[in-house]
Design a protein that fits this description.
three-stranded antiparallel sheet; 3 strands; alpha+beta; 17% strand
Amino acid sequence: MFGDMMKQMEEMQAKMQEQLAQQTFEAEAGGGAVKVTCDGTRTIHNVSIDPEQVDPSDLEALEDLVVVATNRALEQAAAYEAQQAGGMMDNMLPGGLGSILGG
């Protein structure tokens, strides 16, 4: 029984990782001056900088915008992952226990 449950959990986790990899999250900073795109596994896929909205002589400000946009995208991905994991646990628990445990 325990072995079956572990196998089921591993299968569900692998399925969740596939789903996370297919989700895309984009965040911006500086009113769209910097945009960062990541997937649900929190892999950064793109950083876009609008040269018309940034001052190339102020690298520190640009770096800050990149950090802010990156953190925002990663926060979106983490929230999505937490939501998916909660749903996965609800599906695994028998007969309404998920709602009892806060799911």
